[in-house]
Design a protein that fits this description.
Layout: E1 2-6, E2 12-15, E3 22-29, E4 38-45, E5 49-50, E6 57-65, E7 69-72, E8 77-80, E9 86-90, E10 96-99, E11 104-112, E12 116-131, E13 137-150, E14 158-159, E15 164-168, E16 176-191
Antiparallel strand pairs: 1-15, 2-3, 3-4, 4-11, 5-10, 6-9, 6-11, 7-8, 7-10, 12-16, 13-14, 13-15, 13-16
Length: 192
């Protein structure tokens, strides 16, 4: 299993597609490509306003910091409140964001629906965890609190809150044991 560590101090800041704010990109695949098939970032939302459109994509937004926001769609609303509320929606939708009480920080996953399927879950972690290889599936773990390390590799990455760890299976790879305490967002990324 291939393992890549993404320390939060290395995230790359860039403007939003619609120019209304900025985001700190964690990773895009393929890396460096404008034609990415999935992308993870941390968005800093400082003011009310519309979201950018991403046709052909799905999105998942998870509140990390702040009092939260309401996303107002044409036919519904989605409130994101502490702790760690989330909302999934089509990239063609451009909801208006209304902040409840000041700026927020949010975890943002965007993926092309014809290339991959991504699920985002918040999980509590207490001790040893097995990560089993599945064909066509990789995992990305974004650490919310606590610590995360590869148990079988004393020289492997030691993740702290705000860091990410991408676990990519390889043919014939054995299962991987992690030592984890705290909470994390776990993204299951399946190639279609």
């Amino acid at each position: 299993m291939s393992i890549r560590h993404f320390p939060h101090i290395a995230f790359v800041a860039m403007p939003w597609k619609n120019g209304g704010g900025s985001t700190r990109e964690i990773v895009r695949v393929p890396e460096g490509s404008e034609a990415w098939i999935w992308r993870l970032s941390i968005a800093d939302i400082a003011a009310d306003g519309p979201f950018s459109a991403f046709p052909g994509c799905e999105r998942s937004l998870t509140l990390l910091e702040g009092a939260g926001m309401a996303l107002r769609f044409a036919d519904r609303a989605c409130d994101l409140r502490p702790p760690f509320a989330s909302c999934r929606f089509a990239g063609e939708e451009t909801p208006d964001c209304v902040l409840f009480d000041g700026p927020t920080v949010d975890f943002n996953a965007i993926w092309r629906r014809d290339a991959v399927a991504i699920t985002v879950e918040r999980r509590a972690m207490h001790g040893s965890l097995w990560c089993l290889p599945e064909p066509g599936v990789s995992w990305f773990v974004y650490l919310l609190s606590g610590s995360l390390a590869v148990k079988d590799d004393p020289h492997g990455p030691d993740c702290r809150p705000g860091d990410g760890l991408w676990l990519q299976p390889e043919a014939g790879a054995p299962r991987l044991m992690l030592e984890a305490y705290g909470e994390a967002l776990w993204l299951r990324i399946e190639r279609l």
